[in-house]
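B., you asked whether I could sanity-check this one before it goes into the benchmark set. Here's the sequence:
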Amino acid sequence: MDVRRKGVDAMMVAMEDAMAYGTDAVLLVPGRVDEHTSYEDCWKRSTECIKELVPVAEKMRVKICIENVWNNFLLSPVEMRVYLEQFDSSFVRMYFDCGNILVYGWPEHWISTLGSLIGRIHIKEFSRQKA
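And here's what the prediction gave me:
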């Protein structure tokens, strides 16, 4: 079984767990760009997997929230908006991590660009000097 199939299967279980625990969202890191995976491949592969999950998320009424992490992918608020909007579903949103974003930009720019596309917010202590 390949890594993406395992990831999709794990998200199915996570959405079932979310329903069982009475929450309406799960966190997803969509992929990672590195020397072996191009930005374009990461976009294409992650999009295919999330498109498979969208009907299940809609049926279960559980949001798939894409977190911004240090994975070299979705590095600007405009990219994130385009990525999220391609799914045309209110059940695919952003899990906005205010601390992680400080490496790439300013939280307020992301918030104003993404607005209602933000499904969850993660706030933590973070220092640009220590990053």
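One thing to flag: The CA atoms of residues 27 and 65 lie 5 Å apart. Otherwise nothing jumped out at me.
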